[in-house]
Design the sequence.
């Protein structure tokens, strides 16, 4: 990796990854281990001095000869959860620090704005559709993606392109990106992320019987009782993307530990169609988030995202922390970012319980 990252980037990676402040000599030792060759003391000293004197750098000199990475987080096992906006936190992470992304973002954008969350929590819906109970079962709220205007769709494309640019910087070459989406908007997400530099690699299809669609025309149910306004949704697309490789797949795996998908077993490769079930009531009681995905599914895709089982998985829209919980259950490291105060606090409480679930 000696030619792959600069001394400046290596210094940031070392300090960011450390659980405690480091002396200059400790920084030098770990940078040399990361780069695979010796580095002069003057180069380390100069990099630390310049970075710690910059107002835009998270590297800080906390006392003479001791340095740290100034970015607070909630610790969870080997993982960490940041509280803030992804587009503000991601620029503060080191380049080439993340090895995969697994996330369920606000792909309708407006559904996770404060105004819409207030309506959802108050049971008034707004852009969220609060469906009636069905056969005695309470149905989960669903975003109304059919209500998105052309302006909102263009806004969504700009958002995902901006997100893609930030992810391109923090991801290592060959990193997998898996983004939960919806049949109505997945093309927007894919096109925007490709514009940011990613390669489109298909979709993972989560086969799940949902309660989206299948309803008769609203207000005219009796008149058109043999008609469904939309087909009943029985699948969920997860957009697959990849940061371009550094050479061949084999070379990328040797250098960056990324570039493919971890096999289920010697005989079974990871597949792009996964049978799933709705999230269990037990999990929803632990983490009452409207977009919570089941741990069994999350553990399968998180496990596959790191082909050699090494590296860090990022969820820039952590919600109740299900991606981090899945990673911890597998012995992986993960980084999450969550903007909403309530969901951040929920994740801090729910992640250990989700991690410990038997699936």
Sequence:
């Amino acid at each position: 990796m000696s030619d792959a990252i600069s001394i400046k980037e290596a210094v940031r990676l070392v300090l960011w990854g450390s659980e405690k402040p480091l002396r200059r000599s400790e920084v030098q030792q770990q940078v040399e281990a990361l780069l695979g060759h010796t580095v002069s003391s003057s180069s380390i000293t100069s990099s630390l001095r310049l970075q710690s004197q910059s107002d835009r750098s998270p590297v800080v000199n906390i006392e003479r000869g001791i340095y740290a990475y100034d970015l607070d987080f909630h610790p969870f096992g080997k993982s960490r959860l940041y509280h803030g906006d992804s587009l503000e936190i991601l620029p503060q992470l080191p380049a080439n620090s993340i090895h995969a992304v697994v996330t369920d973002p606000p792909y309708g954008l407006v559904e996770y704005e404060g105004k819409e969350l207030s309506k959802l929590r108050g049971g008034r819906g707004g852009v969220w559709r609060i469906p009636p109970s069905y056969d005695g079962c309470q149905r989960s709220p669903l975003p109304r993606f059919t209500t998105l205007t052309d302006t909102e769709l263009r806004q969504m494309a700009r958002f995902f392109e901006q997100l893609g640019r930030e992810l391109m910087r923090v991801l290592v070459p060959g990193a997998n990106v898996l983004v939960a989406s919806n049949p109505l908007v997945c093309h927007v997400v894919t096109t925007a992320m490709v514009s940011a530099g990613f390669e489109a690699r298909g979709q993972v299809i989560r086969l799940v019987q949902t309660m989206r669609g299948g309803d008769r025309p609203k207000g005219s149910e009796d008149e058109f009782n043999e008609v469904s306004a939309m087909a009943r949704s029985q699948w969920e697309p997860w957009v697959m993307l990849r940061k371009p490789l550094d050479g061949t797949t084999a070379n990328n795996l040797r250098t960056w530990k990324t570039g493919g998908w971890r096999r289920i077993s010697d005989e079974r490769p990871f597949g792009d169609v996964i049978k799933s079930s709705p999230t269990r009531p037990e999990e929803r009681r632990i983490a009452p988030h409207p977009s919570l995905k089941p741990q069994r599914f999350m553990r399968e895709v998180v496990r596959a995202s790191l082909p050699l089982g090494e590296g860090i998985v990022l969820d820039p829209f952590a919600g109740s922390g299900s991606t981090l919980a899945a990673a911890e259950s597998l012995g992986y490291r993960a980084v999450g970012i969550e903007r909403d105060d309530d969901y951040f606090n929920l994740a801090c409480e729910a992640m250990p319980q989700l991690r410990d679930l038997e699936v």
